[in-house]
Structure prediction request, 138 residues.
Amino acid sequence: MTANVAQVFLEDGEWIATLRAINTCLGVGGLIAFESRVPSDQAWNRWTKELTQRVVDVDGEGPLEEWVHVTKVDGEFVTFDSPTIFLADGERIESRSTLRFRTQEAICRSLLEAGFTNPEVRDLPHAPGRGWLILAHA
Prediction:
């Protein structure tokens, strides 16, 4: 799984079902690897318009402005808005997302429940203390 996609699974049942499906597809000896953010880092405190606002030039579309702004933190669940504004015509596209920041223990427990073995959690080399690389065998 790429980036922090594992965090979009908010409900435990949906998360476990996804892991079980991956385990089935991988087959014996397969390896799952994915990233997840470290909850204690509280990355969401850096998700403000002031810290994330940027303008990028997109081929064929022109410049667009975007940023991330947290709207709610409820335990492991963080909800945020990330609008995109096309500066050429002012069109604005709204996006609201929620991520779940599971603990290392919860992630490993869910992998075992889904039939994986030997879950291993490593610090991300490009984000030490902020993200984990999780590995487990099918």
Residues 5-137 form one domain. The chain has a mean pLDDT of 95.
